[in-house]
UniProtKB/TrEMBL annotation:
An example molecular function term from Gene Ontology annotations: DNA binding
Source organism of this protein record: Streptomyces galilaeus
Pfam families attached to this UniProt entry: DeoRC, HTH_DeoR
Domain HTH deoR-type: 3-58
Name of this chain's protein: DeoR/GlpR family DNA-binding transcription regulator
Gene3D superfamilies the UniProt entry points to: 3.40.50.1360, Winged helix-like DNA-binding domain superfamily/Winged helix DNA-binding domain
Alphabetized UniProt keyword annotations: DNA-binding, Transcription, Transcription regulation
The keyword DNA-binding is assigned to this record: yes
Cross-referenced InterPro entries: Carb_Metab_HTH_regulators, DeoR-like_C, DeoR_HTH, NagB/RpiA_transferase-like, Tscrpt_reg_HTH_DeoR_CS, Tscrpt_reg_HTH_GntR, WH-like_DNA-bd_sf, WH_DNA-bd_sf
Amino acid sequence: MLAERRHQLILRALRSGGPAAVTDLSEQLGVSPATVRRDLLRLEEEGLLTRVHGGAVVDEGDQPFAEVAEVRVAEKDAIAERAAAMIEEGQSVLLDIGTTAYRLARQLHGRRLTVITSNLVVYEELADDEGIDLVLLGGMVRREYRSLVGFLTEDNLRQLHADWLFLGTSGVRPGGEVMDTTVVEVPVKRAMIKASGKVVLLADTAKFPGTGMAKVCGPEDLDVVVTNAPVDPATRSSLEEAGVEVVLAGKAQA
């Protein structure tokens, strides 16, 4: 059995039945426990599961913003710096929820821009920067993830237009589909896409394929993907076929 297929079956078993022991997975897959342990290590490195004593567990739910903000900070900063270089003075920028959008906001200080966001941490970061016209979208507060969601947020977005949207994600499938772990965020993200001239996906290497059961959009809705590592061949092919530019952070283009 190919490693990719084993990985799919392992994740499916964990999502359907909760924590699973190495011995159980070994029997289900017909491979040695050593092979399962290597698979679990690889999947953990990709951010798809957490190893526990004797096995592994998958948590599809959102982690609190403060916890996610401490993960892969250097990678997110590299992506944010490359994304910030795309923006010209005087333009309007829509920033999605999430920690990479927050890292991008930190790159925008001292510039003459309009920033629109439903991300409360972005708002707090830029609130005292008088050079930035800051628009905070209304909505229901999701306290754990520091964001605003719901029909009020979507209605606000229908009245606005931004030059750029910098979109976050929990996963990008091999077909180029952008996924999210939280269904309530998806309508807001879709409204952001409709309100924007160009859509840039910010996705570190752990987001390929990442997690998420809810589809936000297909590759045809994206203009650029900024990432910190080469994208796997299948996903890259899907993105390029849809006309999406794949930009490697730290280089002009990948």
